[in-house]
Amino acid sequence: MLPGFVAQRLRQARPVRSVRTADGQAPAPAGSQWTAEVEITPQIAADLIREQFPDLGAHQVTVLATGWDNTAFVVDSQWLFRFPRREIAVPGVRREITLLPRLAARLPLPIPDPQFVGQPSTRYPWPFFGARLLPGGELADSGLADSRRAGAAASVGHFLRTLHDPGLVVLVDGSDLPVDPMRRASAPVRARRAREVLDRLVGRRIWPTDSDVNRLLDQAERAAAGAGSADRVAGAAESDGTLPAGDGASGRGPLVVSHGDLHVRHLLVDRDGSATGVIDWGDLCLADPAADLSIAYFGFCGKARADLLAAYGRPISAERELAARACAISLAVSLAEYAADDGRAALLRECVAGLGRATAT
After folding, report:
1. Class of 137-359 per CATH?
2. What ranges do the domains of the chain cover?
């Protein structure tokens, strides 16, 4: 169960409204960081899909999920269309359109494979795409107990082993992938950003002060001691394809192809706990493996985590583990704030549990 102060905060939460819809209507702004720049309603999505893909039909269009950057619609129970909600998400959508078809054939779990690419128009200013609807639901909404996550964990470990294979870097060569632009693999950067959100959560009585979380963040902030400022480098790579010294990342090792935002909302599972897909690749980038390994500490613990890391099969240094744990905390607190603001009880429960997992041995 949620702590009493968390449950009370959810009862007080109100849905977020957007500043304008794609057809130019302007609802009253909510003044929230989660507010969309352009909101797509099911009717507008259906109109755009029918205009650009008349053979598809699009008889039934319903909202599947809304994130900070995109809204996903199910079309005729077969297709999933993603529309950006803000301009900053557009480069990521373009990368998905270009690179996901290359990756889909190589990865052991299903990922979206764009089949329909929508173009900007007078009704909607950005590109969008449609892919086959993947089975399953978000791990965040599954309610799976930690003891039932081992099957999914092993699949994720195998998936990451394949994704992080050096051969995939060659596959995406020439696509100008950014290098860890969100600094997910930088332990001190993630720790500082996590503290900013934690302070807000504590101030709003969404989360109590937790000594284990603070202790791990202290360790993460000390990770860059003697290596220069972690903010000095804006995620640039050296000419040999490694992260520069002083970046505060988990190591000066080769960069890998990284999902870039792999957490409990982006891993799909079915009712028996099997992994069925990995979605939302808008933060696809090159990064240290720690960025994606954060899922091992956010979504799994105990035997399940051990199974994930065994399937991954590559050594993980203490430095890389610390960076992955710091990233897990940062993602968990950001999603917790979103869940509280938007009244998403299941997601908030998962994030609270994730903070406990991130500090668990």
Report:
1. alpha beta
2. 15-132, 137-359
